[in-house]
Amino acid sequence: MTEKITVIGTRGIPNVLGGVETHCQHLYPEIHRQFDNDICVIARSPYVDYKISSFQGVQTKAVWAPKKKSLEAIIHSTLASLTTLFDGSKVIHVHAIGPGLVVPLLRLLGKKVVFTHHGPDYDRQKWGGFAKRILKLGEKLAATYANEIIVISEVINDIIKEKYNRYDAHLIYNGVKLPTQLPQEKIDSTLSKFALTAGNYFVAVGRFVEEKGFHDLIDAYQQANLNIPLVIMGDTDHPTPYSEKLKQQAKNVDGVILTGFLKGEELQAIFSQAKTFVMPSYHEGLPIALLEAMSYSLPAIVSNIPANLEVKLTPDTYFSIGNTEELTLQLAQHAKNEYSSINYASYLEYYDWEKIATQTMAVYQRALTKKVLSGQS
């Protein structure tokens, strides 16, 4: 396939925090590597320091967006869609249900649209009633009008079957890249920066929003009264009352270390040397952070939400969502355990970016050659 592909719905690549962003950062360079396609990822201007650039053979272009959570996705997606009139692209790949609002517009512009549903974002606690209705509309429009749909989990596939009678979606998981070995001096300098000892701290990662459950994690950590640190890598895109309250909560508990956003070798160093990874989330599409923790062979403690259960880890990995008493007991047990690694090879074979790129390219081919959208007149 030689047709140009344009990508919208992501804040940008590379090294922009977020599940969709990590997905795009790995997927499109791999597609370019295998198929030598012309690909352009359209980023949101507040998150990147370029106008036009490239990353591992993928063109990256910034289009203006307001840095306001309620308007950012739809305004940027609309402007990005209009730019595709002049960029020579035949296939537009739209990520997430907020940007899914523009799928009908792209079809009117004559584009073949592939839509990836990364999860029901309207379940996230940060959205008010009006925003939730808009996100549900984005899901409906994308599920109805996209030429082809990709879902990243069976949970999401069930949603679009039940709600929209869309039975032709392609299940293509998120992937994870196996880490490379860091120089020991880089590990040592990063651990020293945060006063950490290898194999002797818990780690969690994500944006400071309610659905990540970090407030539960800090409560449970405080109740466990442990003598090993809890490291939370992340911050917030937009300061909110919740994020400020969370930072204050962390400040009031001895042993909690907030690193802010980390990327590259620093993130890798903190991840790779942790004792246990913790994910107390209330909502995930398919948890990339968990897959990354597994790539580092870390023991894990994760909430029993459907997306985490779909990874099919051993039962003792899971705790009941929102149950800080269970989480407290798990943290205390892991703190007593000897530092150990777990071989997740049999799990990770399902999340290989090389296979995912091949599967995604097949969906693009199908979008270009399929004449009639199933279930539509």
CATH architecture label name of the largest domain: 3-Layer(aba) Sandwich
Query: Which structural category fits the helices and strands?
Result: alpha/beta
Distance between the termini: 27 Å
The helix count comes to 14
Q: How do the SSEs run, as a string of H and E?
A: EHEEEHEHEHEHEHEHEHEHEHEHEHHH
> How many beta-strand elements?
14
CATH topology of the largest domain: Rossmann fold
How large, in whole angstroms, is the Cα Rg? Answer: 21 Å
Integer count of domains: 2
Largest sheet: 8 strands, mixed
> What is the strand arrangement across the widest sheet?
3-4-2-1-5-6-7-8
- Give the overall silhouette: globular
CATH secondary-structure class of the largest domain: Alpha Beta
Query: How helical, in percent, are the residues?
Result: 25-40%
Query: Beta-strand percentage?
Result: 15-25%
Summarize model confidence as the mean pLDDT.
93
Low-confidence stretches: 372-377
CATH superfamily of the largest domain: Glycogen Phosphorylase B
Organism: Aliivibrio fischeri (strain ATCC 700601 / ES114) (Vibrio fischeri)
Domain Glycosyl transferase family: 199-311
EC number: 2.4.1.-
Pfam family, one: Glyco_transf_4
Characterise the protein shown here.
The protein is an alpha/beta fold. The two termini are 27 Å apart. Strands 3-4-2-1-5-6-7-8 form an eight-stranded mixed beta sheet, with helices on both faces. A six-stranded parallel beta sheet has the order 11-10-9-12-13-14, sandwiched between helices. It is globular. The longest helix is centred in the N-terminal third of the chain and has 17 residues. Helix 5 links the parallel strand 7 and strand 8. The chain has two domains: 190 residues, Glycogen Phosphorylase B (Rossmann fold, 3-Layer(aba) Sandwich), CATH 3.40.50; 166 residues, Glycogen Phosphorylase B (Rossmann fold, 3-Layer(aba) Sandwich), CATH 3.40.50. This is Glycosyltransferase.
